[in-house]
Structures are given as structure tokens and as C-alpha cells.
Design a protein that fits this description.
Layout: H1 2-34, H2 36-58, E1 64-70, E2 75-76, E3 81-89, E4 95-102, E5 118-124, E6 128-135, E7 141-153, E8 160-174, E9 185-188, E10 192-195, E11 207-212, H3 224-230, E12 234-238, E13 246-251, H4 258-274, E14 279-284, E15 289-294, H5 297-309, H6 316-320, H7 326-329, E16 333-338, H8 343-356, E17 359-364, H9 373-384, E18 388-392, H10 400-405
Parallel strand pairs: 2-8, 13-14, 13-16, 16-17, 17-18
Antiparallel strand pairs: 1-3, 3-6, 4-5, 4-7, 7-8, 9-10, 11-12, 14-15
Length: 406
């Protein structure tokens, strides 16, 4: 594709160059045949522009370098991308004007942002040009900026030269995080729902042993007495830490509120880590992603990095492969986040409920959308199978767990 582009550009450039030569020849012939002051005056006035166009044809356009700078390295959904592009060139050959435009590799450059990512410069003898642009309301995702399209031209646009300058830059837009107070829950058939005192680990549990230090372990877990004797880092292990498996599951089925589902999962994981709890995370889609025992900032960032890019892709056939998923079956407690509960998922969650009796299903809803009769029947079926169903809207995210306790 790139070779075809180069061949097409070169053929157009040669045609334009030949056109300028023909114009010079025509103006010279006109002056020779017509004679007189006016004819020769027109010819000599035309010569500087024609010579500049012909010299511009041979000027290399690859002696440019690009440097990108982002005002903020951490972006959340809805934030503005503020980018500074610095263009440097090696020569001082006078350039009349230059058009710089971002190459369009992804959906972040919509029609509304087209004017922001294209700029016109009067260059002259400058060797360095800086350009700032802003794209508001960035969508969640991993976006790759591949480079800059650079166009230079003569006075009348007779000779135009366009080149692509690679300038790769990854832009990660994370999901929004809602501040919430996370309360460990425990659901049983006999006692109903309440606060779990031993379901998830805090740092104050009893030490059962020590192991080799691993990247991501908290400083509070380091066994300093052992370090003083052996000069090697050892990490404390806790009794309850090895016996729990609390799992948060994101349903990747297509949904009108999928962005809100992602935000809820990101908010729960952030609250869990910041309040010194532990939780695993499973994203149930075509290619499942599992993050085991998230308890450090490093582990949290890996999960959030995944949530920045996840897109709805699951189908009913995809959901069937989780029917015998050991992560779900052996979970001590399960939080399931979906936009629309299905009979297929009820069958899967019923097995978890039968074994652990601890399943809470968060159904994210748009408060402006009414609930259909079919949805009500499915939710009633879930409750009959021991699954706690909790419809939740975006405004309820901060109090999600306190509302469940009520």
C-alpha cells in the first residue's frame, strides 16, 4: 500500500514539474515572438517563481524530525488530549508554507477533531516549529498515533511535496473511577446478606510464614528481622491470605451501558486496593483475561490498563465456555457485573451459588430506560436460583455496597 502511495505521489510530482517547465518555455516563446517591454517584463517576473518551484522539486522533505509531548500522561474517559508537536529541519531553505496533519489511525480523530489536527504554517527560514492541539472528550481505549503528514508547496501550488514522518506515540485513556466505600459482603442462605469479616484479607492478619520478596509486595509485608540477619528481602505470608478467592467478573456481552459496566469494575478494584483488601478479576469475553489476587498498585494498574481497552465481544456461545470455568466454580464469593442478565449466565452462576452461596449480580441500567417484561422474568429466575440481583444506575455507584447491605 505504501509503495503504491509513493509511486502515485512521484508520478504527480513529475507531472507538476513538467508543467512548470512548459510554462517557462511558453512564456519565453511568447516574449520572443511578441517582443516589447510588456512581454519581457512578464517573462522576467515569472522566472523567480518558476525557478523556486523547480528548485523545490529537488529539495528533500525527509530531513525533518518530530518530537511529541503530552501535557498529561494519564487520561481518563472524557478528558482532553493536549499534544505539543515540535518539528525540526536541518536546512534553512526558505519554505513559503507548510501544512502539518496528524495521520488518522483510530476513531479518536472524528470529524469534530479534524480542524484541530491540521495546521497551516508560514515557515520562511525557521528551523523549528511548535504546534499545539487539543482533542476534547477522549473515548476510553488504547490509541496509537503513528505519525505526521507533511505537505510543502510553492507560491501557486504548482509543485507540492507530501511526506509521512513516523512519530509513534501510544495514548491510553483509562475508564473513569468513581470514589466508593468498599464493604466486603457475605451472602448465605440462612443468614442472608451481611458484612464479611473473614472473606477478604487485611494487612493485620496473623503471620503464618515468610517467602522470597516479589515485585509488587507492600513494604509493610517485609520481614525486617530476617532482612537484618540475611540481607535478603523476605515477605510475610498470612493465614487468611492463602484461603480466599473473591472474584469480580465483567460480562463482555454487547450492552448500551457497557462503558458504565467498565467504570463500575474499575471503581470496585480501585476501592478494594486503596482500602487494603484483595480481589481477583475475570473479564468474561471471547478471550478471557484473569488477574489473580489484586492487592497492590502495580497489579491494579495492570487491570486498569486492560479495562482501558476492553470492548464488548461476548455472545451466548462465548458464555457457554464459562460453564465449567474453575475460577467461577471455586470462587468463595462472586461479584458479577452485566448490562443484561441472560438465562445462560444464570445457569453458570447457579453452580457458583450452589457451592459457595455467595453470588451478587450487579445489573447496570440507564435510569431513563424502562425494564422490559422479559428482563423482569429473568431477574426473578435468578433470585429463585439463589443469586442476589441488584440493579444499579450510574448515580448509585458511590454507594453500591452500602445499598446492597440495605
Amino acid at each position: 500500500m505504501m509503495k503504491k502511495y509513493k509511486v502515485s505521489w512521484l508520478s504527480q510530482a513529475i507531472i507538476r514539474f513538467v508543467m512548470v517547465v512548459l510554462l517557462v518555455a511558453i512564456s519565453l516563446c511568447f516574449a520572443l515572438m511578441q517582443g516589447g517591454f510588456v512581454s519581457w517584463f512578464v517573462f522576467f517576473m515569472f522566472i523567480p517563481f518558476a525557478l523556486y518551484s523547480m528548485i523545490l522539486f529537488f529539495v528533500p522533505v525527509r530531513n525533518f524530525s518530530i518530537e511529541r509531548t503530552m501535557l498529561s500522561e494519564y487520561l481518563k474517559q472524557g478528558d482532553s488530549l493536549r499534544m505539543t508537536i515540535t518539528l525540526r529541519r536541518k536546512s534553512r531553505f526558505p519554505l513559503l508554507y507548510m501544512v502539518i496533519q496528524e495521520s488518522v489511525p483510530s476513531e479518536i480523530f472524528e470529524k469534530a477533531a479534524a480542524d484541530q489536527t491540521r495546521h497551516f504554517f508560514m515557515v520562511g527560514l525557521k528551523k523549528q516549529i511548535a504546534w499545539n492541539y487539543e482533542i476534547p472528550n477522549m473515548p476510553r481505549g488504547h490509541h496509537q498515533l503513528v505519525g505526521i503528514e507533511l505537505t510543502i508547496a510553492d507560491f501557486f501550488g504548482w509543485v507540492k511535496k507530501t511526506t509521512f514522518i513516523p512519530a509513534n506515540r501510544s495514548v491510553v485513556v483509562y475508564p473513569n473511577i468513581t470514589n466508593m466505600i468498599y464493604t466486603p459482603l457475605q451472602v448465605t442462605r440462612n443468614s442472608g446478606i451481611g458484612t464479611a469479616h473473614n472473606a477478604i484479607v487485611r494487612d493485620t492478619t496473623m503471620v503464618s510464614g515468610i517467602r522470597e520478596y516479589q515485585p509488587g509486595d507492600r513494604m509493610a509485608w517485609i520481614h525486617w528481622k530476617t532482612f537484618a540477619k540475611t540481607q535478603s528481602l523476605q515477605t510475610k505470608e498470612f493465614e487468611d491470605q492463602q484461603s480466599q478467592d473473591i472474584c469480580l467478573v465483567l460480562d463482555e456481552s454487547p450492552s448500551d451501558v457497557f462503558e458504565e459496566q467498565v467504570e463500575l469494575c474499575a471503581s470496585i478494584l480501585t476501592a478494594v486496593v486503596h482500602q487494603h483488601f484483595t480481589m481477583s478479576f475475570l473479564s468474561a469475553g471471547t478471550k478471557p483475561a484473569f488477574f489473580d489476587q489484586i492487592q497492590t498498585e502495580e497489579q491494579l494498574q495492570k487491570a486498569l490498563y486492560y479495562l482501558a481497552a476492553v470492548q464488548p465481544n461476548a455472545t451466548e456461545e462465548v458464555a457457554r465456555k464459562y460453564d465449567q470455568n474453575r475460577l467461577l466454580i471455586h470462587a468463595a464469593m462472586l461479584y458479577f457485573v452485566t448490562g443484561a442478565l441472560t438465562i445462560q449466565w444464570i445457569t453458570i452462576l447457579k453452580k457458583v451459588s450452589t457451592k459457595s452461596q455467595q453470588v451478587i449480580c450487579f445489573i447496570v441500567r440507564d435510569p431513563k430506560t424502562s425494564v422490559s417484561e422479559h428482563e423482569e422474568k429473568v431477574e426473578m429466575m435468578a433470585k429463585e436460583n439463589g443469586i442476589l440481583v441488584f440493579p444499579i444506575s450510574y448515580k448509585q455507584f458511590p454507594n453500591a455496597f452500602t445499598e446492597v447491605l440495605k
